[in-house]
Here is the input.
Amino acid sequence: MNLIDFYYTKYAGQYWHVLPRDIAKIWRQSVPYGVNRSITKTGDTVFPPETETRQALQKVRSGRIKIWIDLDNTPHVPFFIPIISDLEKRGYQIVLTARDAFQVCELAEEHGMRFTRIGRHYGKNPIMKIVGLLLRSLQLLPFCMRQRPSLALSHGARSQTFLCNLLRIPTIGLADYEHARSMPTARPKWLIVPESVMGYDFPIKSNRLRLYRGFKEDVYVPMFRSDPTLLGELGLFPDETIITVRPPANEAHYYNPESDKLLEEFMSRVCQTPGTRVVLLPRNRRQEEAMRAAHRDWFHDSRTIVPPRALDGLNLLWFSDLVVSGGGTMNREAAALGIPVYSIFRGKTGAVDSALEHEGRLKMIRSIDEVWSKIQLVRRDKNLQPDKSFRPALKDIINNIEDIIWIERIG
Here is the structure.
């Protein structure tokens, strides 16, 4: 179906004498990029490439546009690296801030990213979370006034979004967990999400919701390069069954204590199984200290080790035989690499995880019994090569960002 037929079918009952400029306006502002811009006979969503004219015009404008990216959590570092690279190739100026929380700054430094460290984490108390959001927004204000960004981009950085909403700077948020909560004033103007969550009713106008194919880990996993020297650095041996374990995020609003019970049961099982080693990745030093104090048996005879520094998470996963995690990102990274992965996350299951479970790439552990019956402590063939086939997530995200810049008349 061509453009004229599409608009005749969709709008014939509303617009009888539509001028070309009216069609252009509806096209830019009412039809989400990649969602029914072109309709096939089967009703499938089509993600068309941009025209050469559009690309040329965008390149002229991009040099005048400064995009501010705020790194708020550890997974945001590898996620934004290819996005930053592609945006810079298209001529955009990128400025970075990073919250001093978890391993964000340490990981960003290891990747050679130039950023300004601003703010920290304020714990799991709901009141302190709100106080921390407001305080960090104030701390970000001087940076924002100095840099004067044209656009704010993040993966759920509430302080940046709150501040830019107040200053009327267009905000784009990326998200992949539809049950995350935020204050209305800290919600982005535009939202880009995986197409697997498109059925969820997000608190945003439908014409400001954009989709991308795949899931967020598809953005950076294809660029992964393995480095076997990691095993020696951690004191691991090739003949061991290596298990990477990520505890639940017990400071997050979606935390469910059932996850900790599943973790404890699994660690008890591992400690009874000869030839296994666990690489434990606590969320922060406070969580590590609590685990060492409460479960000394886990760490006896180096059965469980905690890396002394922030690691390339993908490299660790690649040399693991299986992954057990109470979080989302590490589960999906393992699934993207083809590593057996078991989720002990007991918050509301997100649409992305449900899709991966349906495809057989992720196994959800929902009870103590399943810790013993579902999780297979077996070694895998690590001589295989990672799948580096093309994945459209990065291209879709970049095109969506440029589409929003076009609609907002930025630059």
User: Anything to note?
Assistant: The domain at 227-373 is CATH 3.40.50.2000 (Rossmann fold).
